[in-house]
Amino acid sequence: MEAYTAVISLLQTLDQPYISELFHDHSTEMLDSLRATAECFQNALENTSNEKIKSLEEDIRVVVSEAEDVVEMMISEIIEGKSWTFLKSSKDVLKKMDKTKKQVMEILELTADSLIGASSMSDPMLSDQLEDDIVQGLDGDLEIIDKRLTGPTLDLDIVTISGMGGIGKTTLAKKAYDHLSIRYHFDIFVWVTISQEFRYRNVLLEALHCISKHRVIENTKDYVNMNDSELADLVQKSLKGPRYLFVVDDIWSRDVWDSISQIFPNCNNRSRVLLTTRETEVAMYANTSIPHKMNLLDLDNSWKLLRDKVFGLEHDHPAELEEIGKTIAENVKDFP
C-alpha cells in the first residue's frame, strides 16, 4: 500500500499544471520518462497479486520517493532562479527507476501465461484477450512478433506483417498489441487504421486520441483549429520520451508510408512501429528486412477454427460431422 501511495503521489506531482511551463527549457523528456515508469508501477501494483511483485514493493516505494524528492528540488531551484545543480541526482534516480522497472517487467513477462488465465485480471484493455486468448493457428506467429517487438535494438524498429486480405494480419497485430508481455514492455500504445481511403488528418487525430489515454497532452489548441502540420508536430512531440508501440494497420501504398513516417521519433529507447499490409512491396519499403508473411492455415487448424466457431470452445461436436467438417475446412483453406 505504501508503494502504491508513493507512486500516486509522484504522478500527482508530475501532473501539476505548472510543471510543463517550469520545465519548458529543461529536461521535459526526463519528466516523461519518470511519468511512464510510474504508470508502469501503478499498473503492476493495481492489476497483479504476484508474490514476486510484492517483494519489490519496498524497492518501488524507495525509488519513487527519491524521484519525487528530486523533482521537487528541481522545481524549487527553477522558481528561485538558481542554477540547476540536481542533474546528476536526476540521472541517478532515472537509472534506479529503470532498473526497478526492468525487474517488474521481467517478473510479469515470466508469468504472463498464468496471468492471462487469472480470473482476477481487471485491465479493461485485456478483456478481449481473456475471453479468446489466441486464434487457432496464430500462436506461433504471435511468438515471433512478440520477440521482434521486444528485441534489444535501441533504435526505432519497423516490424512488418504482410499477406493477402482476410488472412489474419489485423487479428495477429491486435493479439500482439493486447498481449500482456507487450503491455508491460511499452509505455504508450497507438493504433491507427489506414485502408485505401487515406486521410492524413484523420490518422493524426486517431493517434492523438490514443496518446491522450496514456498521458496529458499539454499546451494544445482545439484540434479543429490546428492544421495538419501542427497536428503532426504534436503527435511527434507527444511520443518523445516514453517507449511507444505504434500500430499502422492496413497500409496500401509507399506514398502513404512516406506521409506518416515523419511522425515517429527515434528516441533510442526500443520504441516500435508495427505495420500490416497486403502489399509485400510496401512492407519492404518501410523496412528492407524480410517481413513476417502470413500463410494460410493448415487443415488441422482450419478444422479446429471452424469447429470452435460452430460448436464453441467448450462443447463437443458430433463425431459424424467431423468428416464433412474437415471437407468444408479444406475447401475454405484453399479459397483464394
Automatic annotation (TrEMBL):
The Gene Ontology biological process terms listed for this entry are:
defense response
Q: Which UniProt keywords apply?
A: ATP-binding, Nucleotide-binding, Plant defense
Q: Which InterPro entries match?
A: NB-ARC, P-loop_NTPase
Do the record's keywords include ATP-binding? Answer: yes
NB-ARC domain boundaries: 143-312
Q: Does the keyword Signal apply?
A: no
Q: Which domain of life is it from?
A: Eukaryota
Task: Spell out the molecular function terms from Gene Ontology.
Answer: ADP binding; ATP binding
Give the UniProt family note. Answer: Belongs to the disease resistance NB-LRR family.
Q: What name is this protein filed under?
A: NB-ARC domain-containing protein
- The organism named in the record is Solanum verrucosum
